[in-house]
Design a protein that fits this description.
The chain is mostly beta strands and 171 residues long. It has 1 helix and 8 strands, in the order E-E-E-E-E-H-E-E-E. The chain is elongated and about 60 Å long. A hairpin with a 2-residue loop joins strand 2 and strand 3. The protein has an 8-stranded antiparallel β-sheet, with no helix packed on it. The two termini are 24 Å apart. The mean pLDDT is 93.
Length: 171
């Protein structure tokens, strides 16, 4: 059965003694699960999160003298998963795609070096052992690219690879 969801959220943080640290955060998430046939499943999700990084944590750690307010950033993410094979079949294949974009919106002279995009590609193979258990093997590649390189700094771009093997069962 197809399913859809839309989630909206707001989070407000207020401090009586330190109003500079007050912040308002929000998020919007759309997700869907589609089953066009008994052998295909598609999951998709799109989200946008307006987040504040409290002073004294993350980038601001040790920079209290020059950063007087929380850092604000927008993190957008899109995910798509496609699975082929009936749930009752001996084997199923899943393919995953994820794109993430993180951009800071204040103190840009400092934060611009922490803006990045990430693209994840992955595939998993599920092999049924019994009606309630299956073995799996999966591979992912996460390509992370930073928008700016600090003058004289080293590139922080990376390609992260994971190979996973496991066993899943229902009791």
């Amino acid at each position: 059965a197809n399913q859809y969801a839309l989630d909206l959220g707001i989070n407000s943080v207020s401090y009586v003694s330190a109003s500079d640290d007050n912040r308002l955060e929000g998020d919007i998430v759309f997700s869907g699960h589609l089953e066009p046939s008994s052998i295909q499943r598609i999951d998709l999700q799109g989200s946008a999160n307006w987040i504040s990084e409290p002073r004294g944590s993350g980038i601001t750690e040790g920079n209290d003298a020059i950063i007087s307010r929380p850092l604000h950033y927008l993190q957008q993410e899109t995910k798509l998963s496609y699975e082929y094979g009936a749930i009752s079949s001996k084997a199923r294949l899943a393919v995953d795609l994820r794109y993430l974009d993180k951009k800071y919106h204040n103190y840009r002279d400092i934060t611009q070096y922490n803006n990045y995009d990430a693209l994840l590609l992955g595939a998993s193979l599920f092999y049924s052992i019994s009606d309630s258990s299956h073995a799996l093997i999966g591979f992912t590649r996460d390509m992370i690219r930073y928008d700016h390189l600090a003058l004289g700094g080293n590139s922080r771009d990376s390609d992260d690879y994971q190979l996973l093997a496991g066993f899943h069962w229902q009791a």
